Structures are given as structure tokens and as C-alpha cells.
Amino acid sequence: MTDKPDQSSTVGYYNDRAEQFFSSTLRVDMTPIYERFLDGLAPGARILDAGCGSGRDARAFVDRGYAVTAFDASVELAKRASEHCGFAVDVRRFEDVNEVAQFDAIWCCASLLHVPLVDMPMVLSKLWTALKAGGCIYVSYKYGNGERLHDGRRFTDADEDTVRAWLGGMPELSRIEVWHTQDQRPDRTERWTNALAFRTGGPDKRLVTGGDDHFLPHLS
Questions:
Q1: Beta 191-199 vs 173-182: how paired, if at all?
Q2: If you count Cβ atoms within 10 Å of the first and of the last residue's Cβ in the chain, which end, N or C, has fewer?
Q3: Cα–Cα distance measured from residue 167 to residue 199, given in angstroms and rounded to the nearest whole number
Q4: How many whole angstroms separate alpha carbon 206 and alpha carbon 204?
Q5: Cα–Cα distance between 49 and 36 in angstroms, integer?
Q6: Are 106 and 195 in contact (CB under 8 A)?
Q7: d(Cα 121, Cα 116) in Å, to the nearest integer?
């Protein structure tokens, strides 16, 4: 075992322990964060659950009337999430996200924390590209700094300054909100860094361009 296992070993961890992970995370109450994430989203808005794990959150969003696409790198977790959600969950990695302006919101709950530090800007850029104008992305990391190895998995931890640095360079960024929470699982004491980044809504439609768009009514 190396000091920094590659991503395949992390995926293997979840394949080997899929049932245990599914059971331990399925009933965690995420309602306060759901409400913050979904605030302002129109009914039927398109959500990408990137790294969906058990499918707990994807199912919650579907039950609230949103159109959800979900994926996970673990074959075994994607299989269980598909059964739980009632729709097919794709097997793919963050690096495979190539959509452009397809989603109104993107949810990355405790999933980006397995992305190597060197790849984080690229992965976040891909997700940002998949986000529509006016959309938002949610991310969460275990509180801390740098990379570490734990139980055969790679973790990239982040504090507020780190998350703001990663997201602050995204084009058409409107604002970033960062807050901390405690792990809701009864046997855990970890602290989490949560963030929402909002994309601007596109060109200002109030701009007067000339031609048939007469100036005086707008001025009035």
C-alpha cells in the first residue's frame, strides 16, 4: 500500500463495502442542507447528483419533484442507488463529466473529497461548465487541509479558505456561501466544510441595444 493510493483503490473500497456504506448513510437526515440547496430552484429543475453514493439524496430530490441525473464511480454503489432511486444511476467518474450548461444545480455531497488535490481545479471546472447560467453547485469536504490516507482511501480535506480559493476562479461567479456542520451519523464526530457557489444569470436583458429598441421608454 502506498502513502497515497490511486483512485481505483478508493473505488475498490466502496465496491467491497457497498452494502455496509449503503446502510450506514441511507438514513442520515440532510434536510437543512437540502433546503439551502433547493431554495429558489424552479419545480422540475434539472439536478446532477455527482458521486451519489447510496442514492439517498438523488431519491430525496426526485421525491420533491426535480429531474435528477446521478452517477457514481463504484459499480456496486451505482447498482444499489439505481434500485433505491427507481432510475438508472450511471457508472462514471468526475473526469467523465462533459456536459455543457445542462443542469440547474449540481450536488456533490461528500464525493469530491476523494479527488486528488492536483485534479481538484480541473474537476470543479468540468462541473461548473455543466452548470446553467443562474445555477448553483453544492460541495462538501471533511474539515482540514491537504491530502491524507485513511483505511485505504484517499481524502482531500478543505477548510473555508481552500474552498473559496478553488471556487473563486470560476467564470461568471456570483457569490460563494461557506458554512460548517457536524457529521450526523451517530458514530462519527467529524466536522464538515460545506459550500454553495452561484453562477450569474447571463447577460442583462435590460440593456438598450438600439435599432427597434427605443431608448425613451427604457429611460422612463
A1: antiparallel
A2: C
A3: 11
A4: 5
A5: 16
A6: no
A7: 10
Query: What CA–CA distance (Å, rounded) separates 142 from 148?
Result: 11
Q: How far apart are CA 119 and CA 116, in angstroms?
A: 5
Distance CA 176, CA 186 (A): 30
How much is the pTM? Answer: 0.86
- Answer whether 48's CB lies under 8 Å from 130's CB: yes
* Locus of grid cell 463529466: 97
Please give the chain's pLDDT, 220 residues, in tens: 334 444 567 898 889 988 887 888 878 889 999 999 999 999 999 999 999 999 999 999 999 999 999 999 999 999 999 999 999 999 999 999 999 999 999 999 999 999 999 999 999 999 999 999 999 999 999 999 999 998 888 999 999 999 999 999 999 999 999 999 987 766 667 899 999 999 998 544 333 344 444 433 333 3
Cα gap 170→96, rounded to integer Å:
19
Could you give the angle at which helices 7-16 and 75-85 cross, rounded to 10 degrees? 50
CA distances from 181 to 138, 143, 167, 185, 207 (A): 14, 9, 19, 12, 42
DSSP strand E in the chain: where?
Answer: 46-50, 67-72, 90-91, 103-108, 131-142, 146-150, 153-157, 173-182, 191-199
| Measured distance CA(94)–CA(109) in Å, rounded | 13
Distance, C-alpha 157 to centroid of its chain: 15
